[in-house]
TrEMBL record, chain B:
The keyword Phosphoprotein does not apply. Residues 61-83 are annotated as: Disordered. One of its GO terms (cellular component) is exodeoxyribonuclease VII complex. Pfam families: Exonuc_VII_S. Gene3D superfamilies: Exonuclease VII, small subunit (1.10.287.1040). The lineage of its organism: unclassified sequences, metagenomes, ecological metagenomes. The keyword Lipid metabolism does not apply. This is Uncharacterized protein. Keywords: Cytoplasm, Hydrolase, Nuclease. HAMAP family: Exonuc_7_S. InterPro entries: Exonuc_VII_S, Exonuc_VII_ssu_sf. One of its GO terms (biological process) is DNA catabolic process. Residues 73-83 have a biased composition (Polar residues). NCBIfam families: PRK00977.1-4, xseB.
Length: 460, 83
């Protein structure tokens, strides 16, 4: 029963060796291995991942199974590196690989070169996986969101130097906020290494002195193009930034994980720029509005004071004055006459001055007559002092007070010096910035005397 | 008469209070005009503060240093006015 020396593995069809068909485990395993590896050098196999485990070495071990069978599988680190998603239990995949035998254990397995999630794309799977992870860490919590600064000193921007995003952002800032201070961290926004670079930019800008808000983003592109903004390092950097971050990736319909984590998501880079300076824009409007109301209110006060002067003129104390003087005797007649005409003149002068103010207020025509009226008032004032009585002194004090105050209405006097005020067509707003009108718009120009309707034919 | 202005926030608050007081209209003319002058002063202060900065576009290097942005960027933004 001993194997013939020299012929230990003789022809199995030989009845003699067949009877003694003894080979070693190693031999058999080796033959099985050869057979399997040559027959299944490249296979595509579909199944569900179970028992997946990523080893410290970076190799991934798992089992592929379906209803009736299972297959051990391994994916080496060199291949795992290229996976966009993490193979998890329960995920249905198509694996491409070769069948191999691990001789020490007598096990066969598939050595995977690539895994493709079934039904949905690898990017979708990766997106959901990272999203879940970030969500578990609380990075999407609404209470983490910080308000944007009202008046950012400097605006940081992380994007590509030659992308549409930067161009759009700078254009908005030019239009809306001439004096904006922008600090750009140039980075590539897609391809190998983009995510790490973007994350670095967010970190650097958030540490830089004076930067109060950061815009991170890029223009539109395919899901693949925008991918860097779905990668974990970018999302984590956005979350870790010490100043509020506005995420603006692609177009309105594109949503990335960076958008979820950011303090504010902007639909587009242009919108991000608008948001960054929205606080300031509001404040400019508020100051303009308050200034307009301030002017209107003081004009109203002047109008009311005119009414009071008219009332004073009708009071019996004033109208009966000449009669009361006359009662003192004929010898005072001349004096009476002089005083009463002076008084009438003074009152008439005041009234005509007030009348002038009223016309100016009603027509909103800034007036050079302020000076003329002022001269007249001074003259009246002098006449009044010449016939000084207690009552006249009081009147005089009031008149000179009014005179002085009117002179203080400098914003109107300015027009007399050759300045003009330019309004928008509806005259709801004074124009201070050529950017707020377009070529072809009608504008109203107010001069010291009269007004002009004009059309914008160009601007700088 | 020229009282100081502390900061933007207090300036705009004071301006608001002045406008409100004037709009209520119960003040003597003298007082109205005084408030008006103060209001104009505050309004100017606010505008000055809002236009405080000087337009600048800079690059931040990976070493954390600042450099002026290339001309094409500043040029692009200036041309933006025409659109």
């Amino acid at each position: 029963m001993t194997a013939t020396p020299g012929l230990p593995f003789a022809n199995p069809h030989d009845p003699r060796t067949s009877a003694h068909g003894i080979i070693t485990v190693t031999e058999l395993t080796s033959q099985i291995r050869t057979t399997l590896e040559s027959s299944f050098a490249e296979v595509w196999v579909e199944g569900e991942i179970t028992n997946s485990r990523l080893w410290k070495t970076g190799h991934l071990y798992f089992t592929l199974r379906d209803e009736h069978a299972q297959l051990k599988a391994v994916m080496f680190r060199s291949a795992v590196r290229y996976l966009r998603f993490t193979p998890e239990d329960g995920l249905r995949v198509v694996a491409r690989g070769r069948v191999s035998v691990y001789e020490p254990k007598g096990e066969y397995q598939i050595v995977c070169e690539h895994l493709q999630p079934q039904g949905i794309g690898a990017l979708q799977v990766a997106f959901e996986q990272v999203k879940r992870k970030l969500s578990d860490d609380g990075l999407f919590d609404p209470e983490r969101k910080r308000p944007l600064p009202l008046l950012p000193r400097q605006i940081g921007v992380v994007t590509s130097l030659d992308g549409a995003a930067l161009r759009d952002i700078l254009q908005v800032l030019t239009r809306r906020h001439q004096t904006a201070h922008v600090v750009i961290y140039p980075t590539r926004v897609q391809g190998e290494g983009a995510a790490a670079k973007i994350a670095e930019g967010i970190e650097r800008l958030s540490q830089a002195e004076g930067i109060d808000v950061i815009i991170v983003g890029r223009g539109g592109g395919s899901l693949e193009d925008l991918w860097a903004f779905n990668e974990e390092p970018v999302a984590r950097a956005v979350a870790a930034a010490t100043v509020p971050v506005i995420s603006a990736v692609g177009h309105e319909t594109d949503t990335t994980l960076s958008d979820f984590v950011a303090d504010v998501r902007a639909a587009t880079p242009s919108a991000a720029a608008e948001l960054a300076i929205a606080g300031r824009t509001d404040l400019v409007d508020r100051v303009d509005q308050l200034t307009g109301r301030l002017r209107a209110a003081v004009l109203d006060a002047l109008r009311r004071s005119r009414t009071r002067v008219l009332e004073l003129d009708r009071r019996p104390g004033v109208t009966s004055w000449p009669a009361r003087l006359a009662s003192h005797g004929r010898h005072t007649a001349e004096l009476t006459h002089a005083i009463s005409s002076a008084l009438r003149e003074a009152l008439a002068s005041r009234l005509s001055h007030v009348h002038a103010v009223r016309i100016r207020l009603d027509t909103r025509e800034p007036s050079r007559r302020v000076e003329a009226n002022r001269t007249r008032l001074v003259a009246a004032d002098e006449r009044l002092s010449a016939t000084s009585t207690h009552r006249q002194q009081k009147l005089r004090a009031q008149v000179s007070h009014l005179t002085g105050r009117l002179g203080a209405l400098s914003p109107l006097g300015v027009l007399a010096r050759g300045y003009a005020v330019c309004w928008n067509d509806k005259q709801t707003r004074i124009l201070r910035d050529s950017a707020t009108v377009s070529v072809g718009d009608n504008v109203a120009i107010r001069l010291a005397r009269g007004r002009l309707s004009a059309r914008v034919t160009g601007k700088k | 008469m020229k009282r100081g202005v502390k900061d933007f926030e207090s300036a705009i608050k004071e301006l608001e209070a002045i406008v409100k007081a004037l709009e209520e209209g119960d003040l003597a003319l003298e007082q109205s005009l005084e408030l008006f002058e103060r209001g104009i002063q505050l309004s100017r202060f606010c505008h000055t503060r809002l236009e405080d900065a000087e337009r600048r576009i800079e690059l931040l290097t990976s070493q954390g240093e600042r450099a002026a942005a290339p001309d094409n960027l500043t040029a692009t933004s200036e041309n933006g006015n025409d659109t």
